[in-house]
Amino acid sequence: MQTFDFDLFVIGGGSGGVRAARMSAQRGARVALAEVADMGGTCVNVGCIPKKLYSYAAHYAEAFEESHGFGWVGEAPKFNWDTLKANRAKEISRLNSIYINLLDSAGVKIIKGWARLLDAHTVEVGDKKYTAKTLLVSTGGTALVPAVEGHEHVVTSDSMFDLDPFPKRLAVVGGGYIACEFASIFNGLGSKVTQIHRGEKLLTGFDDDVRDFIASEMRKTGVNLQLKSEVEAITKTADGLVIALKGGGSFTVDTVLYATGRIPNSNGLGLETAGVAVNAAGAIKVDEQYQTSVPSIYALGDVTARVQLTPVALGEAMVVVDQLFGPLAGKKPRGMSYDFIPTAVFTHPNIGTVGYSEAAARAKFDNVSVYRSDFKALKHTLSGSTERTLMKLLVDDASDRVVGLHMVGPDAGEVVQGFAVAMKAGATKALFDSTIGIHPTLAEEFVTMREPVQG
Ligand code: NDP
Question: Model pTM?
Answer without folding.
Answer: 0.97
